[in-house]
Amino acid sequence: xxxxxxxxxxxxxxxxxxxxxxxxxxxxxxxxxxxxxxxxxxxxxxxxxxxxxxxxxxxxxxxxxxxxxxxxxxxxxxxxxxxxxxxxxxxxxxxxxxxxxxxxxxxxxxxxxxxxxxxxxxxxxxxxxxxxxxxxxxxxxxxxxxxxxxxxxxxxxxxxxxxxxxxxxxxxxxxxxxxxxxxxxxxxxxxxxxxxxxxxxxxxxxxxxxxxxxxxxxxxxxxxxxxxxxxxxxxxxxxxxxxxxxxxxxxxxxxxxxxxxxxxxxxxxxxxxxxxxxxxxxxxxxxxxxx
Length: 291
Prior knowledge:
By secondary structure, the chain is α+β, with helices and mostly antiparallel strands. The protein has three domains: 7-51, Uridine Diphospho-n-acetylenolpyruvylglucosamine Reductase, domain 2, CATH 3.30.43.10; 62-172, Uridine Diphospho-n-acetylenolpyruvylglucosamine Reductase, domain 3 (2-Layer Sandwich); 179-290, CO dehydrogenase flavoprotein, C-terminal domain (Enolase-like, domain 1, 2-Layer Sandwich). Helix content is 34%, strand content 25%. It has helices at 14-23, 36-41, 77-81, 84-89, 91-97, 103-108, 111-117, 123-130, 226-232, 239-246, 262-290; strands spanning 7-9, 27-30, 49-52, 62-65, 68-72, 134-139, 142-147, 152-154, 157-158, 165-172, 179-185, 195-204, 207-216, 223-224. The strands form four sheets. The chain has a five-stranded antiparallel sheet. It has a four-stranded antiparallel sheet with strand order 11-12-13-14. Strands 1-3-2 form a three-stranded parallel sheet, with helices on one face. Helix 9 packs antiparallel against helix 10 and helix 10 (239-246) runs antiparallel to helix 11. The model is unreliable at 286-291 (pLDDT under 50).
């Protein structure tokens, strides 16, 4: 199939984009196009106007500032993959990005596009939840920030207005050393994950000081497993502790679709969260020994 007819706009600044979004009816923004272009070709999306973000200045960068990693919305996934700063300061993101699609899609796909698409199985969406990222958006009233916990409005729908543009994402960095892991189950490498799990651990003399456990693919948005995190903090890390704590994941109200029944997603959630915690704990020990 071919896309529907639309008017094409090619702005170069953020204010230009905001002005277009404010005045144009039924407009869609084009970032990497890895989701939008197939939707246009299959006529699942029918915009009257297409606003191309690829020439907009100042939206592609990766930098560390104020104890956080700041990444511009138009930063390509491939640039995140090869960023030494991401590898050194946010290794869970580096591990997750390697499981995003394939090289061809990562060459074009962007951070902002992935977060705005908000696919429940998307790896970068799960990482944003795990790190408690903050989303910055620009609109007619200026710039505002949205904690990622409030960013998913409903299924695949972000909490931004039709005249707003995602400009950057701020990921708080965990102190060094810490343990990390991102694991997922997919039918084939590069496919959307049926279930994914991100784990972060900070330990002191074998005791867990801080934990983050996030599941992707189980519900309409990533699920932070606060019950599991609470069960871990203050305890001595062990395989038995991780196994028992992650049994709580079987109680999740999981979604069901053609890819997997809810019961299978619940089972994967318990298994993958345990594996992620075991791997994160092993890396915490390795980091301590090498420091």
